[in-house]
Amino acid sequence: MTTTSTNPAIPAGVPGTETETQPRQPHSWQFIRAGGVDQVVFRSGEDIARIAELDQKLWVALACPTRGIDFDPRTLDLIDSDGDGRVRPPEVIATCQWACERLRSADVLLAGGGALSLDDLDNTGSPGSDLAREGRRILDLLGKKDANTLTLADISDRGEWLASMRFNGDGVVTPETAGDDGLRATIEEAMRTHGSTPDRHESRPGLDRARAEAFMAEAKAVHDWYAKGDEEARLPLGERTLAATESMRAVAAKVDDFFARCRVAAYDVQAVAALNPSADAYDALSSHTLDVGAPPIAELPLAPVTPNRSLPLQGTSLNPAWTDAMAVFARDAVAPLLGERDALEEEQWQALRRRLAPCEAWIEARPANALAGLSRDRVTALLATRNALFALIAEDEAAEHHNRLLVDLEKLLRLQRDLRVLLHNFVSFKAFYQREGAIFQAGTLYLDGRSCELTVQVQDTARHAALAGLAKTCLAYCDCTRQGQKMSIVAAFTAGDVDFLFAGRNGVFYDRQGRDWDATITKLIENPTSVAQAFFAPYKKFVRLVEEQVAKRAAASEAGSHSALQSLAGRVATADQAAAPDASKPPARPGVTPTASRIDVGTVAAIGVALGSISAVLVGIFGKFIDLGQWIPVALAGIVIAISGPSMLIAWLKLRQRSLGPILDASGWAINGRMKVNVRLGGLLSQTARVPPGAKRIAADPYRERHGLAGVLAAVCIVGMGVVLAWRMDWLDDRLPPRLQHGTTISGQ
């Protein structure tokens, strides 16, 4: 079947449309009809290149999920441009056009195999020529300088050989990437203070551009702060001024507190007792194990408070919690600026603070960042490696161009291997209707003496069944387990009977990789599998109902017999004991012997009349049936049609509506047509057990059913009915004696 089709929705300039400069003739497509719909046939690469012209109403599917189907998920992820987990026609069209733009001939996409010659790439355009150069570079890196064919296996493990390269294009440099010890130390310091990011291919911690820029900015701020301290007014002691100021800042609050207390004591002697620790404070300290560095002791004044007293810098009168800090203060600040001394007057203290005030203000202006504690020489050494660090990062980032080309090569190789399969399972269902194994088929289920090939993986059984029931197909939902793994599938039973399909039955499921799973039916949607099955369905239901009623009556009779036996056993066991008089019964009259109850004659008569009436009705019906004569076969056929006809009609209607669409729609697909599954195809999808051709049965079944007397009686009844029928149809007139023909006798006339 050949037709032409154009898509007016495609804008101008897209491959497969007419442009102002180069008009194109409508493409000639070929179709086959399968499943009740027309399905396109991909004959050449031109069909793929101009797929945008194919009317999407003629596509079999309009969407499919990227997971839960037998297709390489990496390839689907490369096609799924928006990353929503679904593939739709615009993405398929864009993928086909992307691949055709980079190849000399689109026929390569129909070859399959996952191998691509560098000569197949289009060197006349930028995308194709860039890929050709990158392919040549990869082959050289792999030691295949004489080879001209690139395979998917050559780049599938690209992470291994990219890891062996110094630069991989992610912009992250590790200490091992550095070429000298100074740069390595800078990277390590930056990772320590500003954190790290994992390397893309090696998954080792490294430094990226953003962290490197933040690190160097903080190092520059600390360096500038050090530069501001070079003025002599700020550093009267040179490099020792910073240490002197730090030691003064460490004790400044306590020294100010001491001299303030002494001035208050000089103002009023009565305040001395209150300004010194009270006896209660020492009592509180005495109740605990003492530590001279404990906070309660450190909160006491530096020395005993008296009017106009100088501050001791050492000795027993100094607060033991501050001994070490005061010793550092005396060594680094007092001695260099005021000379060696044992005590400090308040005027000397104020003079000292004035000398160190510029440096103190400089210290307060120190940047509050992670590098503030580093020495000036260390910060200067870090800044010296700034240019080398950013050059290293830029060199690594430059390799990203090769990474992008590598991804494009991987995509092209995967499309060369998988695109044809996708088109035959998306644009058309060739793989399914030619029984090549569609990507939505999860495997094969073996259960109840048959194999079911139409199996689909499901995520939510209840949600799937709500829609899949519209497929008018007998569906069995199964939970499959294997070595701790669990999976749910739905299997379509499209041939054979469904008499012994029920929840709880076990089978074996083989997935597309050949792995075996334990399968258990959890839910069943019953629908007819054939008209022949529907013919026998009413009789099977009747026999089943009779069996159920007989079983119920037998169970009730058994229960009654069991109760009677229990009662009899009780009377026998207590026969030697005198029965207690029953107050509910009237006392027996003297001389009167109780008699057993007798059967009511009226009841017997009524039963007889009923049986007689039933027999008369049956005899009348049988007589009328015999009177039909030659119409008896027609009557039998009418009875059979009346019983089996409705069931067969319903089955026929459902089989005409049986389709694949709802099953796949419930699994996340968007099926464009009904995709019928007729009886012939259903017989191929669900195959029953049969003895192989050429095999022989070498012995009869020793356990077969033996009918015995029941079989003989059935045969006699059939023969009798045949004789009566032959007699009523006058078939025996030529074979009987004249006196028996037509029920007459020969007289002596």
Write the layout of secondary structure elements.
Blueprint: E1 2-4, E2 28-34, E3 37-40, H1 45-49, E4 61-65, H2 73-79, E5 86-87, H3 89-101, H4 108-111, E6 115-117, H5 126-141, E7 149-151, H6 152-156, H7 158-163, H8 181-194, E8 197-198, E9 205-206, H9 209-228, H10 240-267, H11 272-275, H12 279-286, H13 295-298, E10 311-312, H14 323-338, E11 343-344, H15 346-364, H16 376-384, H17 386-398, H18 400-426, H19 430-433, E12 443-447, E13 450-452, E14 455-458, H20 461-468, E15 474-482, E16 485-493, E17 506-511, E18 516-525, H21 531-573, H22 601-627, H23 632-657, H24 661-665, E19 670-671, H25 679-685, E20 686-688, H26 709-728
Antiparallel strand pairs: 1-2, 2-3, 4-5, 4-19, 6-7, 8-9, 10-11, 12-13, 12-17, 13-20, 14-16, 15-16, 15-18, 17-18
Helix pairs in contact: 5-18, 8-9, 9-16, 10-14, 10-15, 21-23
Estimated radius of gyration: 51 Å
Number of strands: 20
Query: How much β-strand is present in the residues?
Result: 5-15%
Structural class by secondary-structure content: alpha+beta
- Overall 3D form: elongated
Strands of the widest sheet, in order across it, are: 14-16-15-18-17-12-13-20
**Major sheet characteristics:** 8 strands, antiparallel
User: What is the rounded distance between the termini?
Assistant: 85 Å
Count helical runs: 26
Q: What does the average pLDDT come to?
A: 81
Would you write up a description of this structure?
- The chain has 749 residues and is an alpha+beta fold.
- Helix content is 48%, strand content 11%.
- The protein has 26 helices and 20 strands.
- The strands form six sheets. An eight-stranded antiparallel sheet has the order 14-16-15-18-17-12-13-20. The protein has a three-stranded antiparallel sheet with strand order 1-2-3, with no helix packed on it. Strands 5-4-19 form a three-stranded antiparallel sheet.
- The two termini are 85 Å apart.
- The model is unreliable at 1-21, 592-597 and 742-749 (pLDDT under 50).
